[in-house]
Amino acid sequence: MSPRLLSAERPVAWPAFHLEVLQGLAADQRTLPPKLFYDERGAGLFEAICQQPEYYLTRTELEILSRRAGEIGALAGPDAMLIEYGSGAGRKVRTLLDAMVRPGGYVPVDISQKQLVDVAAALRRDYPTLPVRPLCADYTRPFAVPDMGRGRRIAFFPGSSIGNFHPAEAIAFLTRVRHTVGEHGALVLGVDRRKNREVLDAAYNDAAGVTADFNRNILRRLNRDLDATFDEERFAHRAFYNAAAGRIEMHLVATESHEVSVAGRRVFFEAGETIWTESSYKYGRNDLEALVRAAGFEISRLWSDRRKRFWVAVLERTEASV
């Protein structure tokens, strides 16, 4: 039997979906929102990215979580409700669930409906006493969380996805999380650290070309969902570290001048023109402290891996924000 699936928004065709795309493509610097990556094929490609040797993020975060899960479980306390933003394949959360005392419930939140249903079913099978309420939603927008458990609300946002938000957007997102977890809640946050440019550039330009395929898949999705006419072969993947802004930028570059139709609108691309599809901000300690403080949190715990590439932070609400 399929798990009960709550839906905060329609998973594919949101009311403003085509407007958001058209406005982004009409801008001087053309953009597409990174949430569009995660259709069924895109979710699978991202899981493949996580297995690439250049992509250190998943391995380092799992290293930290494995070593610190007991401390996180103790901080959460008994009967805690765990809310995971961007649950993906649901691997990392098992480390926390195994360490928690009588978790009162788990709410995986993801935009990829099929993956969400599969993950919820697997967790219900492997954790038969755990209430699981999957929520299909765009977590970049406000949504309601079902009330489960008698303990604290603990949000879990792994994978350095906080870096996909520009700083002002990240503050707004974290502020919404603070309201969601409530007065006694906390957030376990994955954060990628600033580091050597060569390491960063390689992580987003794997030799197998999986990230390039993932990036171009966004065009395939627009062809399917908005009757667009993108030719993937006319766009090249480009990802690079912008040191001044402290972020990786991922773009699709038009390799020749040509015209595309999107939702009945014509869009002309000059050769060399780009569509900015994703940012991934990297944080220093001062940057991170300023970010979470602006959202009404403070860093309670901050752990890194042995090579100092990644952080897992536990954020508690500040007294001023209660």
Name the helix and strand elements from N-terminus to C-terminus, one letter apiece. EHEHHEHEHEEHEHHEEEEEHEE
Radius of gyration: 20 Å
The biggest sheet amounts to: 8 strands, mixed
Specify the helix fraction band.
Answer: 25-40%
* Alpha-carbon distance between the two ends: 41 Å
> How big a fraction of the residues is strand?
15-25%
Q: Based on helices, strands and strand pairing, what is the structural class?
A: alpha/beta
- Care to count the β-strands? 14
Mean pLDDT equals 92
Structure overview:
The protein has helices at residues 17-26, 40-49, 56-76, 92-99, 113-126, 167-181, 197-203, 210-225, 285-294, and strands at residues 6-7, 30-31, 81-85, 105-110, 135-136, 153-157, 186-192, 235-242, 247-254, 258-262, 265-269, 274-281, 297-304, 310-317. 34% of the residues lie in helices and 25% in strands. The strands form 3 sheets. The chain has an 8-stranded mixed beta sheet, with helices on both faces. Strands 2-12-9-8 form a 4-stranded mixed beta sheet. The chain has a two-stranded antiparallel ribbon with strand order 10-11. Helix 6 links the parallel strand 6 (153-157) and strand 7. It has 322 residues and is an alpha/beta fold. The model is unreliable at 7-15 (pLDDT under 50). The N and C termini lie far apart (41 Å). The protein is globular, with a radius of gyration of 20 Å.
